[in-house]
Amino acid sequence: MGVQGLTGFVEERGVFFTDLRVRDTKLVIDGSSLYHRLCFAPDADFRRGGDYGAFAAAVRDFFGVLRACGVAPFVVLDGGRGAEDRKLATLRGRAAEQLRAAHGLSRGAGGCLVPLLTREAFVQALGRLGVPFVQCFAEADREIAGLANRWGCPVLSLDSDFFVFDLAGGYCPLSHFQWQSVRAAGPQGCYVPARCFSADRFCRHFGPLSKALLPLFAVMNGNDFIGLEALEAFFSKVRLPRGCAAGRGGKHLRLQGLLNWLAQFAEPAEAVDNVLKYLKKHQREEIRELLCTSMEDYAPSDVNLEDFFQNGCYECEAARKADVPQWVLDALAKGAHVMPSDAFAGDSGSENEFPRTYPK
């Protein structure tokens, strides 16, 4: 998913972050964010269809650093879009951007474009390194948040939706995860310097704001599933308080004003009722349903990924409703559609495999 403008808004205000030394812990990793991050290395060449050897080496180096720091990674990948296809408009826009980028690269222009087989190369590299991973039935965000909260460990991603989830172990943006600058700290061993976002700090700064209202904030501001058009009447009529420390530009002023406005309410239903007062009567029930349905994207997932990593069985209510056979679902979760390859030949000995026991 992704909340429009939220990353820039949060990054402007460092008070929401704390310094974190990542070591001797489990770490739930958003696989899609990670392979995009590693793919867009400063020296990457996108003009000839992808340098998969260099990409595989970057994957190996990344997980080698985690191993050296005693970090047990668990990678979670997105699956399909879901039967409702609510994200279709966003995907069309991104596809158009990719076509423009590909056209520019073919004519010698600069730019970045994820090579077509990057995801497959990433999954193969994970298998070769022995890194535990799962491919979800649909969007992975809720399952990532659920697994991290079950273990009380951080989430590593580059998706602004994780500013919205209530994460017990916090959210570490990949942009602040300095895995190439590992440091040593005496007898405790080495660690990865990182910064960790705290939803508690964020909410205290605005009001305080109830964490239960963060999903409504994300939906009203606009994400990959819902645009702002339906709520423009609200924003054109409501008087949003600015509070203090206004951000740069109108977009961030609206974000801050919306947060301060929501802080006056105790729970989402009360806030939704007050939003609807600014809309025409014939629109209200439709918008209420749209807001409530969209907020469910931030609700806890019914999928128990801990059970998958322990027993290899992936169970999902959405898949059951779609009559997907269990053997198909398990194969999908294990990435069985990706065939083994010798493309990652090199340091493939046992020292590159992660242990099957993990720190608590």
Overview of the molecule:
The protein contains 15 helices and 8 strands. It is an alpha/beta fold and 360 residues long. The protein folds into 2 domains: 6-202 and 300-352, Rossmann fold; 204-298, no CATH class. The strands form 2 sheets. The chain has a 5-stranded parallel sheet, with helices on both faces. A 3-stranded antiparallel sheet has the order 1-8-7. The two termini are 30 Å apart. The model is unreliable at 244-249, 338-352 and 355-360 (pLDDT under 50).
Helical segment tally? 15
Helix/strand/pairing category: alpha/beta
CA-atom Rg in angstroms:
21 Å
By CATH, the topology of the largest domain is Rossmann fold
- Globally, the shape reads globular
Strand order in space, largest sheet? 4-3-2-5-6
Largest sheet: 5 strands, parallel
H/E series: HEEHHEHHEHEEEEHHHHHHHHH
Distance between the termini: 30 Å
- Kindly provide the name of the CATH class of the largest domain: Alpha Beta
Core attributes:
about 350 residues, alpha/beta, Rossmann fold, 2 domains, five-stranded parallel beta sheet, three-stranded antiparallel beta sheet, 15 helices, globular, Asteroid_dom, PIN-like_dom_sf, Asteroid domain-containing protein
In short:
The chain is built from 15 helices and 8 strands.
Topology of this protein?
Layout: H1 6-11, E1 17-22, E2 26-30, H2 31-39, H3 52-68, E3 72-77, H4 88-106, H5 118-129, E4 133-135, H6 141-151, E5 155-157, E6 171-173, E7 183-184, E8 190-197, H7 199-205, H8 214-221, H9 232-237, H10 249-262, H11 268-276, H12 281-295, H13 305-311, H14 317-321, H15 326-333
Parallel strand pairs: 2-3, 2-5, 3-4, 5-6
Antiparallel strand pairs: 1-8, 7-8
Helix pairs in contact: 3-5, 8-12
